[in-house]
Amino acid sequence: MDNYEYRAGIIKKYTWEKDLSGLSKADIIEFRSWLLSNYSRDVAHKVLTSFHSMVLELVSRAVMTHDVAAGVTVSAASRYDEPVSIPTEREIASLLSAADRLANSKNAVLAKTWLRYRPMLYLAIDSGMRPQEYLVAAKGCLRPTGIEVARALEGGGTRITVTKTRAGRRLIDLTSETLQMVRHYADKHAVANGYDLIFPCNNGEWQSIRNWRRRGFGRACEEAGLMEMIEEDGKRFERPKYKPYDLRHFYASMLIDQRVNLKRIQTLMGHRNIQTTLNVYGHLIERAEAVSQERTSVLMSLSRDSCGKSVAEQS
Questions:
Q1: pTM for the whole thing?
Q2: What is the tally of structural domains in the chain?
Q3: Whose CA is closest to 204, among 215, 193, 217?
Q4: What is the DSSP track for 277-295?
Q5: Ranges under pLDDT 50 in the chain
């Protein structure tokens, strides 16, 4: 319902210069242009789809004489037109070790910052959650063996709403180390807030994806040596080799390597349909036969030395 109300709000926000009976296909095309100028292609696609459904309903009720929105569409662009970037197990181990070191830094400011970022990074890797999901994860959604994904950021990070689709609501198993770390932060260090956030900012609001990407994940990549030199507009500069969303791809690749059943992978990834799973990870699935529905935690399969356990045990 929140999603539909959000789309309805966008439709109402547009300046309609005619009433329903006077609308023509040209008016809908103008509306589409406005959507594409003010929102992402994905949002424009969803809003126009909802608008078309509304028009069809009005036609069936004889409120409108014909479908003025017929043929006016926005193709849903895929973020997976290019192959996804997947960190290796060694690179993930380096990221986690980097987070451990940063959280144990002698620099008090840095250590305090990573008191929050460290369990966030562990959770992101161990759950495969989208950044917009774990940034607003609720303490009330922590379970004895993992976490329930029930909400996400929407509208460019301006509001908390339900998950992207109904399939997005799911229960994900976590390793005991990650779960303990996240619970400890939520119980002992998170500031009081009105959103039941596990990782709130100091003012009680949720964190922005941009700040997490730059100050948190980017800093961990730098500490782990996961940087690359690129050139744009004739200038060379260094940037993180990966993005926070790539941790989700790593999670999926580990499930595939562990021969988790394809339908189970779809559920854990929160994909609405299995075709999305196949489109994104088909090349990985071809490497292994998905024959078992047994779920094993991702971090359990990593072999590494952690130097940051003391952080999780601090009170």
A1: 0.69
A2: 2
A3: 193
A4: HHHHHHHHHTTS---B---
A5: 290-293, 310-311, 315
